[in-house]
Write a structure and sequence with these properties.
Blueprint (H helix, E strand, L loop, with lengths): L9 H20 L5 H23 L10 H21 L3 H19 L6
Helix pairs in contact: 1-2, 1-4, 2-3, 2-4, 3-4
Length: 116
């Protein structure tokens, strides 16, 4: 069972799911995504997870870090797992697994090749 968090994961899941649908649709059509859609597929899920960590940060001792959002944007592959471990301890592993799935799903969907 996934632990309860301060902020809802629904927006991050919605962004990752829509990016995955776009990536799968373009992969099935066999065309490259339009530039704006490509940016959304590439940067939407990480930015939504960064936004989630900022929303979840409220009310903790870590909230005193003034530029947490900028710091997250620069080093998110290291800071998101660190934040989850620091905030939730051992209970962070399932949540980290969900984050990895949300981050990798668009890339896995883009790897779909239609059989001809």
């Amino acid at each position: 069972m996934l632990l309860r968090t301060h902020a809802s994961l629904r927006p991050a899941v919605t962004v990752a799911a829509s990016a995955t649908v776009f990536a799968a649709a373009y992969a099935l059509l066999g065309t490259a995504p339009q530039p704006l859609v490509g940016l959304y597929i590439r940067f939407g899920p990480p930015l939504s997870l960064i936004s989630w960590t900022i929303a979840d940060l409220r009310g903790t001792e870590l909230a005193a870090i003034y530029d947490w959002g900028l710091l997250q944007c620069m080093a998110w592959p290291v800071l998101i797992p660190w934040y989850l471990k620091r905030r939730y301890g051992r209970r962070a592993w399932p949540l980290l697994g969900v984050f990895v799935v949300l981050l990798l799903a668009p890339y896995l969907a883009a790897a779909i090749r239609p059989s001809r």
